Structure to design on (660 residues):
């Protein structure tokens, strides 16, 4: 993955965030990772103070999104990202504990690119994240051009 | 609630009032009728007496008329000798005695009149005797003697006596007439006033009764309206309660879902960092081994060799490493167990949320399919599964599959060691319900555990098989959602029979279910 791509990690659980980061690094991905522990901060960063997302214009972003956030649901963020003209082409990876089929279906309908359930079994978890890292290293991310 | 005895009391009082009113009305009517009969009778009697008096007077007049006729015709005959006058006279004389007899008969109730009649009879007898002698003289052709007799009779007081007596009699009858007329009038007035008074009372009672009937009608109407209102309120409150219950149930489902979900999140961390610790442990003990090797041996191994070949730990270090591993293993197995439990709760709540899709199901085919999937396990356990003819039902396919596969799995799992297993699935229809029995000849369940086995995370008997204690709880939840019931009959070492009763047509029962 090109070094200019920034990984936006929206994950309220710092432990999870740390584990995810470690395993991504282990798979050899060295891109910048910006962690956010709540929805409001993440939305503030992504869409800017005016909510238009103009600040992110021209940046290549990859969004790792948890659905269970303390202040909002990840689905709302997903919807806003996919409706925003600057951000809609950025890939969104939903990484969450929910394995409810309704929820998964809903996320794909709203335009999520990958949906991964966090397994409790750490080996599977680490494996999943590492494979995600491998996926990141080969994926082409468009810059959020106008 | 407290109003009911009061109203029933009032109702009883009102009913009593009605009965009393009716009884009073009846009594008054009877009294009026009796009084009317009595009074009318009396009035008739009084009238009869009045008529009687008039009759007596008539009789007196008739008698007097006949006497006068006899007298005048006798005189006329004496003067003219016309036989017509004689006939006339004889007729009149012939009438006098019966007339006076009749008069006596009419007045024999009144002693005064009897006395008068007697006097008059005497006078009349004298007068008749005179007539006879006059006639004799005329017949013997002695007109002078007859005339003399006429003169004598006219001069005599017989006529005066008769006149006096008749006057007296008339006066007496006049008096009686007045008296009796007054009596009759009084009776009439009394009868009519009694009738009028009675009618008034009856009308008054009728009015009261009508008023009471109207009032009770109104009370009934009010009660009816109240009842209808209550019914409507009841229906609404039942609906409200049902909605509340449904909401509470949904709330619990959501709660269980969220809780089990949120419990999973820290579990991922615990598991993750435990695994990280495990890796760290590997690194640490590798270094300890390397260091102890470096300390004990004069010629240390080359750096790259330390990395690839595992240097053996010795003595205390090895024990330490083993303890570390053991602790980590326990932590990890506990986490795995907890994860399974949470998954089970999640699945249960998900089952509770799933919408059932009723469809016609060939039950025998469905269970045959389940038996085929466990055929391998059955062969391993030396068991046979017999599926007898079963009633078809309309229900949710997935739920039924889960119910039967759980029960058949259980039957296979808990067979008696050393005896060939025999699992039978039977079924029959009864009153709109299908009854299924899954029986085995396995190890059985102690009767004291019959309730326990249906509880979540609870198991019974020897714990030599893997399991979470979820299957039967899940099955019972499903059976209940299908509108059915489930029970077990079992004895230790004799096998178990699980009985499931579910509606033949789930769709028609759905309304009662929610």
């Amino acid at each position: 993955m090109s070094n200019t791509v920034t990984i936006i990690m929206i994950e309220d659980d710092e432990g999870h965030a740390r584990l995810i980061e470690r395993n991504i690094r282990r798979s050899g991905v060295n891109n910048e990772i910006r962690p956010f522990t709540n929805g409001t901060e993440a939305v503030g960063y992504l869409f800017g103070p005016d909510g238009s997302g103009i600040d992110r214009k021209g940046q290549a972003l990859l969004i790792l999104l948890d659905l269970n956030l303390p202040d909002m649901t990840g689905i709302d963020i997903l919807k806003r990202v996919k409706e925003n003209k600057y951000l809609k082409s950025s890939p969104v990876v939903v990484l969450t504990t929910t394995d409810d089929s309704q929820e998964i279906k809903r996320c794909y309908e709203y335009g999520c690119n990958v949906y991964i359930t966090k397994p409790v079994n750490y080996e599977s978890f680490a494996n999943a994240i590492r494979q995600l890292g491998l996926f990141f290293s080969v994926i082409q991310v468009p810059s959020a051009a106008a | 609630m407290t109003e009911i005895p009061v109203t029933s009391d009032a109702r009883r009082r009102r009913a009593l009032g009605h009965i009393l009113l009716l009884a009073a009305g009846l009594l008054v009517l009877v009294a009026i009728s009796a009084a009317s009969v009595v009074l009318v009778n009396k009035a008739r009697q009084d009238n009869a007496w009045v008529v009687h008096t008039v009759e007596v007077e008539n009789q007196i007049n008739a008698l007097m008329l006949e006497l006068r006729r006899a007298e005048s015709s006798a005189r006329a005959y004496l003067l003219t000798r016309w036989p017509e006058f004689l006939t006339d006279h004889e007729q009149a004389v012939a009438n006098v005695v019966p007339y006076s007899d009749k008069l006596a008969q009419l007045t024999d109730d009144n002693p005064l009149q009897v006395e008068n009649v007697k006097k008059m009879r005497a006078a009349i007898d004298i007068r008749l005797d005179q007539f006879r002698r006059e006639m004799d003289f005329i017949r013997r052709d002695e007109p002078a003697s007859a005339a003399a007799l006429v003169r004598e009779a006219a001069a005599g007081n017989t006529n005066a006596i008769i006149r006096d007596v008749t006057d007296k009699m008339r006066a007496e009858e006049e008096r009686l007439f007045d008296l009796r007329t007054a009596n009759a009038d009084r009776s009439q007035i009394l009868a009519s006033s009694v009738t009028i008074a009675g009618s008034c009372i009856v009308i008054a009672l009728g009015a009261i009764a009508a008023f009471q009937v109207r009032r009770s009608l109104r009370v009934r109407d009010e009660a009816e309206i109240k009842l209808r209102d209550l019914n409507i309120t009841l229906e609404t409150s039942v609906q409200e309660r049902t909605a509340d219950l449904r909401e509470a149930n949904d709330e619990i489902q959501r709660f269980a879902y969220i809780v089990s979900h949120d419990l999973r999140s820290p579990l991922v961390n615990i598991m993750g960092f435990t695994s990280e610790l495990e890796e760290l442990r590997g690194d640490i003990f590798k270094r300890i081994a390397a260091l102890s090797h470096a300390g004990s041996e004069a010629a240390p191994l080359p750096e790259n060799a330390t990395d690839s070949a595992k240097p053996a730990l010795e003595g205390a270090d090895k024990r330490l490493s083993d303890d570390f591993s053991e602790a980590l293993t326990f932590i990890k197995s506990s986490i795995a167990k907890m994860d399974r439990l949470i998954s089970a709760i999640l699945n249960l709540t998900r089952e509770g949320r799933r919408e059932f899709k009723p469809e016609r199901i060939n039950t025998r085919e469905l269970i045959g399919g389940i038996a085929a999937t466990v055929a391998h396990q059955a062969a391993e356990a030396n068991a046979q599964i017999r599926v007898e003819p079963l009633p078809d039902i309309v229900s949710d396919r997935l739920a039924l599959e889960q119910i039967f596969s759980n029960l058949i799995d259980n039957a296979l799992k808990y067979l008696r060691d050393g005896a060939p297993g025999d699992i039978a699935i039977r079924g029959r229809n009864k009153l709109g319900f299908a009854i299924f029995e899954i029986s085995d000849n396995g190890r059985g369940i102690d009767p004291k555990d019959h309730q326990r086995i249906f509880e979540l995370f609870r198991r019974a008997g020897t714990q030599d098989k893997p399991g979470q204690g979820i299957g039967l709880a899940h099955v019972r939840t499903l059976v209940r959602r299908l509108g059915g019931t489930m029970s077990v009959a079992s004895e230790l070492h004799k096998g178990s029979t699980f009985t499931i009763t579910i509606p033949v047509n789930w769709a028609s029962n759905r309304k009662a279910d929610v």
DSSP finds twelve helices and seven strands in chain B. The longest helix of chain B spans residues 158-296.
